[in-house]
Amino acid sequence: MLKLPSERTLREYQNSKIENRVVAILFDEIYLNAEIHYDVSADEFKGYSDDASSRDPIPAKTALVSMITWINKPWKQAVGYWFLGGSNDTQRTTNIILNSIDEINKTGLIVKAIITD
Questions:
Q1: Distance CA 102, CA 96 (A)
Q2: How far lies 6's CA from each of 11, 12, 28, 37, 107, in Å?
Q3: Chain centroid offset of residue 21 CA
Q4: Record's superkingdom (predicted)?
Q5: What one-character-per-residue DSSP string does 4-63 give?
Q6: How far apart are CA 29 and CA 93, in angstroms?
Q7: Residue pLDDT, tens place only, 30-72
Q8: I need a surface site. Which of 27, 51, 73, 74 has the fewest CB within 10 A?
């Protein structure tokens, strides 16, 4: 799930000077208790590996969290999180990172760095 800032906020960024549009994108993976449960209100099972493009029938063991931070400004913005199945998700993680960079660049922001742990 990739959540970008509102349309109004993005317009303000696009109209600003180039040095005010330079950002770094941060990714961090956190470990989860693998647990599947039924959500009555949504009438669906929760806890599966889900990267927003596909949902696998295996429990999510990690969550990949992303945010952008401006290099020349004291601003930060969370942009998304994805539930992954574990150690064999290298290709999915790569696709998420590349897709995130593309989507952020489309907004007029300029990704100059990627930070992971």
A1: 10
A2: 9, 10, 23, 32, 11
A3: 19
A4: Eukaryota
A5: PPPHHHHHHHHTS-GGGSEEEEEEEEEE-----EEETTTTEEE-EEE-SS-EEEEE--EE
A6: 10
A7: 888 877 878 788 887 777 776 666 667 778 888 889 999 999 8
A8: 74
